[in-house]
Amino acid sequence: MKRFAFLLLLALCVQVVLGQTEIKFATVAPEGTAWMKTMRQIAKEVKEQTNGQVTFRFYPGGVMGDETEMLRKIRIGQLHSGGFTGNGLGEIYSPVRVLEVPYLFSDVGELDTVVSVITPELEKGLFEKGYVLLGWSDVGFVHFFSKDPIRSLNDFRGKRIWMWQGDPLARAFFKSYDVNPIPLALTDVLTQLQTGMIDVVYASPLAAIGLQWQTRTKYVTEQPMTYASGAVLLAKPSWDKLNVDQQKILKSISTRLLRQLTLQTRSDNEEAMQTLQNSGLTITPMPPEADQKHLEEIGQRTRNQLVNQLYSKDLLDKVEATLEQYRANR
Fold first, then answer.
1. How far apart are CA 253 and CA 261, in angstroms?
2. Are 50 and 246 in contact (CB under 8 A)?
3. How far apart are the C-alpha atoms of 270 and 54, rounded to whole Å?
4. Phi first, then psi: what are they for 204, rounded to 5°?
5. Three-state DSSP class for 82?
6. Tens digit of pLDDT for each residue in 48-70?
7. Residues in contact with 274: Cβ distance below 8 Å, sequence separation at least 6, in sequence order
8. Residue 101 CB coordination number (10 Å)
């Protein structure tokens, strides 16, 4: 009887150990930012609701490399999860980039409407590539930050403009601008701003502050050129290690808190723009009407160029039709 009781206890202990899952999560977002605070809150609630069976280990601030390197480490099992911008998401499933085409959204109402319509399709595509979408975590509207003022299209001439290395959307966009950008990994941007290798970068106000790019620039454009999406993904092998209840808990908590993060990020970006002004950056006004029309043409041309490269014409048509209907109803 004692032997049976011992074996039963041992079996239960083994089950508990085997039932534990640690999710190794990485992001380029620095520690202390809203993104990392939200991830730590997700970890706390998931651990509590799974009785300690599902935990997280964090690698913030790009310590695991840029997003391309993070994806490589996920493929070999060194990491399991990550917070990705559109660039990283596009490396997995390129149609996601339709949310970031230039000069498409004029406000977050338009964005939210489109996202609600196409998320099922994007989520399915990511899953087929081996990733579970835990939730969107938008970065915000993206502005140009520069050492000299950019008030018109002509002001881009002769500038050393950064482009996220390997980003096909950015490449097509700058080609439409008729400028030759300098491709660099995200982690190299601050250093090259300091050396003078580049003098124009693009980011949301909050991201620029988090990455300290505002310390090496003097101007920020009033008009954004796109909206930067983001999401938290979990590799399917790690997802499959969770039982059904754990999956539901993780998905529910992540979706809820990442949506709260998106709303908070939008508010924080507005405050960040004011912070940039208070710190000495000058906001350059909207471009002249002629340039504004040209920018809209650049946006449309870029979107069309990327059909069958990043996304299908059907998906782009669905996005544009949804926007048209939303604007008509509004």
1. 12
2. yes
3. 35
4. -75, 155
5. strand
6. 999 999 999 999 999 999 999 99
7. none
8. 25
Nearest to 28 by CA among 207, 264, 229: 207
C-beta separation of 120 from 131 below 8 A: no
Query: Using one digit for the tens of pLDDT, what is the confidence trace for 201-224?
Result: 999 999 999 889 999 999 999 999
Q: What is the pTM of this model?
A: 0.86
Nearest to 55 by CA among 13, 18, 21, 16: 21
Ramachandran assignment for 166, one of left (phi > 0), alpha (psi -120 to 50 degrees), beta (any other): left
Report yes or no: 320 and 199 within 8 Å, Cβ to Cβ: no
Give per-residue burial for 158-186: e unless 16+ CB within 10 Å, then b.
ebbbbbbbebbbbbbbbebbebebbebbb
Walk me through the domains of the chain, giving residue ranges and CATH numbers: 20-329 (3.40.190.170)
Class of residue 275 by CB neighbours under 10 A (exposed 0-12, middle 13-18, buried 19+): middle
Q: What residue type is 229 in one-letter code? A: S
Instruction: Please report the DSSP string for 104-173 in residue order.
Output: --SSHHHHHHHHHHHHHHHHHHHHHTTEEEEEE---EEEEEEESS---SGGGGTT--BEEETT-HHHHHH
Cα–Cα distance for residue pair 82/313, rounded to 1 Å: 29
Judge whether 140 and 273 are in contact, CB under 8 Å: no
The 10 Å Cβ neighbour count of residue 11 is 10
